[in-house]
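Bumping my old thread because nobody answered last time. Still need a sequence for this structure:
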């Protein structure tokens, strides 16, 4: 066997074949939905995965207002932010967040699973979250993904 004939393939912006993926979030647990979405955004399901390049897919998530949380997380889970002023810590429960902006819970969960650098910021821009079943990306012909069949 000639080991010198093998080449390590490193994906870059030009060689990455990016696809559009449609994920239906109805009755999906938030954390599992976010981890699978983050893997698609990074491109970890592809054979030419490169850690330092944006070779992942574009992801469209619909029905973000119909996600599930396990246990008592609707009342107990807290989202903490700070205004920047002294004593400016603001705490929002998951139920309040869902009532105010349903897409924010999915966006925060996925963003927390992406790298904390410029690459993570770029990957986050490849995700589009919609509260309802309609989206405006029909022209890209997204491929429907069944999350229950993915490990």
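Sorry it took so long. Here it is:
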């Amino acid at each position: 066997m000639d080991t010198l004939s093998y080449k390590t393939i490193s994906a870059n912006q030009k060689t990455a074949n990016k696809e559009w993926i449609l994920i239906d979030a109805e009755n999906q647990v938030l954390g599992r939905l976010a981890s699978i979405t983050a893997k698609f955004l990074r491109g970890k399901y592809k054979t030419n995965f490169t850690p330092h390049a944006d070779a992942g897919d574009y992801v469209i998530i619909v029905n973000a207002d119909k996600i599930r949380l396990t246990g008592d997380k609707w009342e107990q889970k807290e989202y903490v932010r700070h205004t920047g002023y002294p004593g400016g810590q603001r705490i929002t429960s998951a139920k309040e967040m869902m009532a105010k902006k349903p897409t924010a819970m999915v966006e925060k969960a996925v963003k927390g699973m992406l790298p904390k650098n410029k690459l993570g910021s770029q990957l986050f821009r490849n995700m589009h979250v919609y509260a309802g079943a309609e989206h405006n990306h029909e022209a890209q012909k997204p491929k429907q993904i069944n999350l229950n069949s993915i490990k």
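The chain has a mean pLDDT of 94. Let me know if any region looks off to you.
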